[in-house]
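pinned: reference chain
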Amino acid sequence: MNVFYPPIEQTHDPTRELDHGDPTVYPDSPARTRAILAAIEREQLGILVPVAPPADIGFIAAVHDPEYLAFLQEFWPVWEARYPARHEAVPHTFALRDRLSSRPPTRDRQIGWWVFDTGTPLLATTWPVATASAHAAFLAAGEVLAGAPRAYALCRPPGHHSASDAAGGYCYLNNAAIAAHALATQGRVALIDLDYHHGNGTQQIFYTRSDVFFASLHADPARKYPYFSGFAHEEGAGAGLGLTLNVPLPAGVGDRAYLEALRPVLDRVVRYDPAFVVISAGFDIYAGDPLGDFAVTVDGVRAIARQLAALDRPLLVIQEGGYAVEALGSLVAAFLAEIV
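pinned: its C-alpha coordinates
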Protein backbone atom coordinates (compact mmCIF):
# COMPACT_ATOMS: atom_id res chain seq x y z
CA MET A 1 0.00 0.00 0.00
CA ASN A 2 1.29 3.43 -0.88
CA VAL A 3 1.36 6.11 1.82
CA PHE A 4 1.13 9.63 0.38
CA TYR A 5 2.37 12.42 2.63
CA PRO A 6 3.53 16.05 2.25
CA PRO A 7 6.95 16.62 3.92
CA ILE A 8 6.34 20.39 3.81
CA GLU A 9 3.70 19.96 6.54
CA GLN A 10 6.54 20.01 9.10
CA THR A 11 6.73 23.78 8.53
CA HIS A 12 3.12 24.16 9.73
CA ASP A 13 3.70 24.67 13.43
CA PRO A 14 1.33 27.19 15.03
CA THR A 15 2.22 28.07 18.59
CA ARG A 16 -1.26 28.26 20.07
CA GLU A 17 -5.01 28.33 19.59
CA LEU A 18 -7.65 30.24 21.50
CA ASP A 19 -9.81 27.66 23.26
CA HIS A 20 -12.88 29.42 24.68
CA GLY A 21 -10.74 32.51 25.07
CA ASP A 22 -7.74 30.79 26.67
CA PRO A 23 -4.46 30.48 24.73
CA THR A 24 -3.51 26.79 24.65
CA VAL A 25 -0.71 24.82 23.00
CA TYR A 26 -1.69 23.98 19.42
CA PRO A 27 -2.64 20.28 19.31
CA ASP A 28 -2.03 19.68 15.59
CA SER A 29 1.75 19.53 15.89
CA PRO A 30 4.35 18.22 13.42
CA ALA A 31 5.13 15.50 15.97
CA ARG A 32 1.87 13.79 15.00
CA THR A 33 3.10 13.04 11.50
CA ARG A 34 6.54 11.99 12.68
CA ALA A 35 4.97 9.47 15.05
CA ILE A 36 2.79 8.00 12.30
CA LEU A 37 5.60 7.78 9.76
CA ALA A 38 7.88 6.09 12.28
CA ALA A 39 5.23 3.48 13.06
CA ILE A 40 4.52 2.79 9.38
CA GLU A 41 8.21 2.28 8.68
CA ARG A 42 8.71 0.17 11.80
CA GLU A 43 5.79 -2.12 10.97
CA GLN A 44 6.51 -2.06 7.21
CA LEU A 45 2.92 -1.16 6.42
CA GLY A 46 3.43 0.81 3.23
CA ILE A 47 5.67 2.53 0.74
CA LEU A 48 6.19 6.19 1.59
CA VAL A 49 5.45 8.57 -1.29
CA PRO A 50 6.40 12.21 -0.57
CA VAL A 51 4.11 14.80 -2.16
CA ALA A 52 4.86 18.45 -3.02
CA PRO A 53 2.41 21.34 -3.41
CA PRO A 54 0.64 21.02 -6.77
CA ALA A 55 1.42 23.12 -9.81
CA ASP A 56 -2.25 23.05 -10.84
CA ILE A 57 -5.02 23.45 -8.23
CA GLY A 58 -7.87 22.52 -10.54
CA PHE A 59 -8.68 19.43 -8.45
CA ILE A 60 -9.00 21.68 -5.37
CA ALA A 61 -11.13 24.24 -7.18
CA ALA A 62 -13.50 21.42 -8.13
CA VAL A 63 -14.54 21.34 -4.46
CA HIS A 64 -13.68 24.76 -3.01
CA ASP A 65 -14.99 28.23 -3.84
CA PRO A 66 -12.55 30.14 -6.07
CA GLU A 67 -12.84 33.32 -3.99
CA TYR A 68 -12.02 31.37 -0.85
CA LEU A 69 -8.97 29.85 -2.55
CA ALA A 70 -7.87 33.29 -3.70
CA PHE A 71 -8.12 34.52 -0.11
CA LEU A 72 -5.94 31.67 1.20
CA GLN A 73 -3.37 32.22 -1.52
CA GLU A 74 -3.22 36.02 -1.24
CA PHE A 75 -3.82 36.64 2.45
CA TRP A 76 -0.39 36.41 4.03
CA PRO A 77 1.55 39.06 2.06
CA VAL A 78 -1.18 41.62 2.76
CA TRP A 79 -1.36 40.67 6.43
CA GLU A 80 2.43 40.71 6.82
CA ALA A 81 2.67 44.17 5.27
CA ARG A 82 0.13 45.48 7.79
CA TYR A 83 1.41 43.52 10.82
CA PRO A 84 5.09 42.64 10.21
CA ALA A 85 5.70 41.53 13.80
CA ARG A 86 2.82 39.04 13.90
CA HIS A 87 3.63 35.53 12.73
CA GLU A 88 0.14 34.06 13.06
CA ALA A 89 -3.22 35.52 12.13
CA VAL A 90 -6.45 34.69 13.98
CA PRO A 91 -9.79 36.45 13.43
CA HIS A 92 -11.38 38.36 16.27
CA THR A 93 -14.53 39.45 14.41
CA PHE A 94 -16.68 37.00 12.46
CA ALA A 95 -19.11 37.74 9.65
CA LEU A 96 -22.68 36.48 9.90
CA ARG A 97 -22.79 35.40 6.29
CA ASP A 98 -26.35 34.12 6.48
CA ARG A 99 -27.50 37.65 7.29
CA LEU A 100 -26.98 41.01 5.63
CA SER A 101 -23.22 41.57 5.61
CA SER A 102 -20.58 42.64 3.14
CA ARG A 103 -17.16 41.14 2.52
CA PRO A 104 -14.34 43.62 3.29
CA PRO A 105 -12.37 44.73 0.23
CA THR A 106 -8.85 43.88 1.48
CA ARG A 107 -7.56 40.38 2.15
CA ASP A 108 -6.26 41.08 5.65
CA ARG A 109 -9.72 42.28 6.76
CA GLN A 110 -11.43 39.22 5.29
CA ILE A 111 -10.05 36.67 7.75
CA GLY A 112 -13.25 36.64 9.82
CA TRP A 113 -15.26 36.16 6.64
CA TRP A 114 -13.48 32.98 5.55
CA VAL A 115 -12.32 31.47 8.90
CA PHE A 116 -15.07 30.45 11.32
CA ASP A 117 -13.20 29.88 14.60
CA THR A 118 -10.20 30.99 16.67
CA GLY A 119 -8.43 27.63 16.45
CA THR A 120 -7.29 27.85 12.83
CA PRO A 121 -4.52 30.44 12.50
CA LEU A 122 -3.11 31.48 9.14
CA LEU A 123 0.66 31.46 8.70
CA ALA A 124 3.09 32.31 5.93
CA THR A 125 3.20 28.61 5.01
CA THR A 126 -0.54 27.92 5.18
CA TRP A 127 -1.19 27.95 1.44
CA PRO A 128 1.65 25.64 0.29
CA VAL A 129 1.14 23.28 3.23
CA ALA A 130 -2.63 23.02 2.82
CA THR A 131 -2.40 22.48 -0.94
CA ALA A 132 0.30 19.83 -0.46
CA SER A 133 -1.93 17.99 2.01
CA ALA A 134 -4.82 18.13 -0.46
CA HIS A 135 -2.48 16.95 -3.19
CA ALA A 136 -1.61 13.87 -1.12
CA ALA A 137 -5.30 12.99 -0.85
CA PHE A 138 -5.85 13.56 -4.57
CA LEU A 139 -2.90 11.37 -5.58
CA ALA A 140 -4.08 8.64 -3.21
CA ALA A 141 -7.50 8.79 -4.89
CA GLY A 142 -5.78 8.46 -8.25
CA GLU A 143 -4.04 5.35 -6.95
CA VAL A 144 -7.40 3.80 -6.11
CA LEU A 145 -8.86 4.84 -9.45
CA ALA A 146 -5.94 3.08 -11.12
CA GLY A 147 -6.94 -0.17 -9.41
CA ALA A 148 -5.18 -0.21 -6.04
CA PRO A 149 -7.42 -1.85 -3.41
CA ARG A 150 -6.03 0.38 -0.63
CA ALA A 151 -4.28 3.72 -0.26
CA TYR A 152 -3.52 5.99 2.67
CA ALA A 153 -3.07 9.76 2.60
CA LEU A 154 -1.24 11.03 5.68
CA CYS A 155 -2.74 14.50 5.45
CA ARG A 156 -1.72 17.34 7.70
CA PRO A 157 -3.33 19.77 8.21
CA PRO A 158 -6.49 17.67 8.45
CA GLY A 159 -9.50 18.66 6.39
CA HIS A 160 -12.95 17.51 7.43
CA HIS A 161 -13.99 20.78 9.15
CA SER A 162 -13.21 22.84 6.05
CA ALA A 163 -16.33 23.73 4.09
CA SER A 164 -16.34 24.64 0.42
CA ASP A 165 -15.73 28.26 1.38
CA ALA A 166 -14.40 28.29 4.95
CA ALA A 167 -11.55 27.18 7.20
CA GLY A 168 -11.94 25.97 10.77
CA GLY A 169 -11.07 23.22 13.22
CA TYR A 170 -7.37 23.21 12.17
CA CYS A 171 -8.59 22.56 8.59
CA TYR A 172 -8.05 24.76 5.51
CA LEU A 173 -8.86 22.46 2.57
CA ASN A 174 -11.09 19.41 2.76
CA ASN A 175 -8.76 16.57 1.82
CA ALA A 176 -11.35 13.81 2.13
CA ALA A 177 -13.92 15.72 0.07
CA ILE A 178 -11.35 16.43 -2.64
CA ALA A 179 -10.50 12.73 -2.81
CA ALA A 180 -14.16 11.65 -2.75
CA HIS A 181 -15.05 14.09 -5.51
CA ALA A 182 -12.27 12.68 -7.69
CA LEU A 183 -13.45 9.11 -7.07
CA ALA A 184 -17.08 10.05 -7.74
CA THR A 185 -16.20 10.76 -11.36
CA GLN A 186 -15.97 6.97 -11.78
CA GLY A 187 -18.63 5.67 -9.39
CA ARG A 188 -20.58 6.29 -6.23
CA VAL A 189 -18.66 6.93 -3.03
CA ALA A 190 -19.38 6.26 0.63
CA LEU A 191 -17.45 8.63 2.90
CA ILE A 192 -17.34 7.46 6.52
CA ASP A 193 -16.03 9.95 9.07
CA LEU A 194 -14.67 8.27 12.22
CA ASP A 195 -13.11 11.36 13.79
CA TYR A 196 -14.22 12.26 17.32
CA HIS A 197 -15.56 15.58 15.97
CA HIS A 198 -18.27 15.89 13.36
CA GLY A 199 -17.05 16.48 9.81
CA ASN A 200 -19.17 19.58 9.31
CA GLY A 201 -17.23 20.75 6.26
CA THR A 202 -17.56 17.41 4.48
CA GLN A 203 -21.26 17.32 5.24
CA GLN A 204 -21.74 20.80 3.79
CA ILE A 205 -19.90 19.91 0.58
CA PHE A 206 -21.95 16.78 -0.16
CA TYR A 207 -25.27 17.65 1.51
CA THR A 208 -27.23 18.01 -1.75
CA ARG A 209 -25.35 15.45 -3.85
CA SER A 210 -26.52 11.94 -4.72
CA ASP A 211 -23.13 10.50 -5.72
CA VAL A 212 -21.56 10.61 -2.23
CA PHE A 213 -23.12 9.05 0.87
CA PHE A 214 -21.73 10.75 4.00
CA ALA A 215 -21.86 9.11 7.41
CA SER A 216 -20.27 10.38 10.62
CA LEU A 217 -19.92 8.94 14.12
CA HIS A 218 -18.87 11.66 16.54
CA ALA A 219 -19.28 13.35 19.88
CA ASP A 220 -22.73 14.84 20.26
CA PRO A 221 -22.46 18.47 19.01
CA ALA A 222 -24.84 19.49 21.79
CA ARG A 223 -21.77 19.26 24.02
CA LYS A 224 -18.70 19.24 21.74
CA TYR A 225 -17.20 21.08 18.76
CA PRO A 226 -18.39 22.03 16.17
CA TYR A 227 -21.63 22.60 18.15
CA PHE A 228 -23.76 23.73 15.18
CA SER A 229 -23.57 20.66 12.95
CA GLY A 230 -23.79 16.88 13.24
CA PHE A 231 -27.25 16.32 14.73
CA ALA A 232 -29.22 13.20 13.83
CA HIS A 233 -31.96 15.15 12.06
CA GLU A 234 -29.50 16.40 9.41
CA GLU A 235 -30.11 13.91 6.60
CA GLY A 236 -29.26 15.76 3.39
CA ALA A 237 -31.38 17.84 1.05
CA GLY A 238 -32.48 17.89 -2.58
CA ALA A 239 -30.77 15.12 -4.55
CA GLY A 240 -28.86 14.24 -1.38
CA LEU A 241 -31.89 13.73 0.86
CA GLY A 242 -31.32 10.60 2.93
CA LEU A 243 -27.64 10.42 2.01
CA THR A 244 -26.28 12.07 5.16
CA LEU A 245 -26.21 9.97 8.31
CA ASN A 246 -25.10 11.44 11.63
CA VAL A 247 -24.57 9.32 14.74
CA PRO A 248 -23.97 11.61 17.74
CA LEU A 249 -22.44 9.69 20.65
CA PRO A 250 -22.26 10.33 24.41
CA ALA A 251 -19.10 10.62 26.47
CA GLY A 252 -17.39 7.42 27.55
CA VAL A 253 -18.16 5.34 24.45
CA GLY A 254 -15.89 2.30 24.48
CA ASP A 255 -15.09 -0.47 22.02
CA ARG A 256 -18.35 -2.39 22.27
CA ALA A 257 -20.64 0.64 22.12
CA TYR A 258 -18.69 2.16 19.24
CA LEU A 259 -18.84 -1.05 17.20
CA GLU A 260 -22.57 -1.33 17.89
CA ALA A 261 -23.04 2.24 16.61
CA LEU A 262 -20.92 1.50 13.55
CA ARG A 263 -22.88 -1.60 12.50
CA PRO A 264 -26.02 0.18 11.18
CA VAL A 265 -23.80 2.75 9.45
CA LEU A 266 -22.09 -0.02 7.53
CA ASP A 267 -25.47 -1.57 6.73
CA ARG A 268 -26.48 1.72 5.13
CA VAL A 269 -23.22 1.78 3.18
CA VAL A 270 -23.89 -1.70 1.83
CA ARG A 271 -27.39 -0.66 0.73
CA TYR A 272 -25.96 2.38 -1.02
CA ASP A 273 -23.57 0.02 -2.84
CA PRO A 274 -20.67 2.40 -3.50
CA ALA A 275 -17.85 1.72 -5.92
CA PHE A 276 -15.38 3.27 -3.46
CA VAL A 277 -15.16 3.89 0.28
CA VAL A 278 -13.30 6.87 1.77
CA ILE A 279 -12.50 6.92 5.49
CA SER A 280 -11.89 10.15 7.37
CA ALA A 281 -9.73 8.47 9.98
CA GLY A 282 -9.56 10.44 13.20
CA PHE A 283 -7.88 8.68 16.10
CA ASP A 284 -9.07 11.16 18.70
CA ILE A 285 -11.67 8.50 19.54
CA TYR A 286 -8.86 6.87 21.54
CA ALA A 287 -9.31 6.66 25.31
CA GLY A 288 -6.25 8.81 26.03
CA ASP A 289 -6.80 11.58 23.51
CA PRO A 290 -6.58 15.06 25.07
CA LEU A 291 -9.35 16.47 22.87
CA GLY A 292 -11.84 13.63 23.28
CA ASP A 293 -13.80 11.76 25.92
CA PHE A 294 -14.42 8.39 24.27
CA ALA A 295 -12.84 5.19 25.59
CA VAL A 296 -11.90 3.29 22.42
CA THR A 297 -8.77 1.16 22.81
CA VAL A 298 -6.15 -0.04 20.33
CA ASP A 299 -8.05 -3.33 20.10
CA GLY A 300 -11.18 -1.35 19.33
CA VAL A 301 -9.38 0.46 16.52
CA ARG A 302 -8.36 -2.92 15.09
CA ALA A 303 -11.95 -4.15 15.23
CA ILE A 304 -13.23 -0.99 13.51
CA ALA A 305 -10.71 -1.47 10.71
CA ARG A 306 -11.74 -5.12 10.26
CA GLN A 307 -15.36 -4.06 9.88
CA LEU A 308 -14.39 -1.54 7.21
CA ALA A 309 -12.22 -4.06 5.36
CA ALA A 310 -15.19 -6.45 5.32
CA LEU A 311 -17.07 -4.00 3.08
CA ASP A 312 -14.89 -5.48 0.33
CA ARG A 313 -14.59 -2.22 -1.61
CA PRO A 314 -11.55 -0.21 -2.69
CA LEU A 315 -10.64 1.73 0.44
CA LEU A 316 -8.99 5.13 0.72
CA VAL A 317 -7.95 6.26 4.20
CA ILE A 318 -7.49 9.99 4.82
CA GLN A 319 -5.82 11.10 8.05
CA GLU A 320 -7.82 13.51 10.19
CA GLY A 321 -7.41 14.05 13.96
CA GLY A 322 -5.66 12.18 16.74
CA TYR A 323 -3.68 14.16 19.31
CA ALA A 324 -2.34 11.63 21.81
CA VAL A 325 1.05 11.75 20.10
CA GLU A 326 2.64 9.04 22.24
CA ALA A 327 -0.04 6.55 21.12
CA LEU A 328 -0.88 7.89 17.66
CA GLY A 329 1.66 5.86 15.69
CA SER A 330 0.51 2.61 17.28
CA LEU A 331 -3.15 3.48 16.65
CA VAL A 332 -2.61 4.22 12.96
CA ALA A 333 -0.42 1.14 12.56
CA ALA A 334 -3.07 -1.06 14.21
CA PHE A 335 -5.72 0.35 11.85
CA LEU A 336 -3.69 0.03 8.68
CA ALA A 337 -2.49 -3.49 9.52
CA GLU A 338 -6.11 -4.69 9.39
CA ILE A 339 -6.91 -3.23 5.99
CA VAL A 340 -3.76 -3.89 3.93
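why pinned: DSSP finds ten helices and ten strands in the chain. The radius of gyration is 19 Å.
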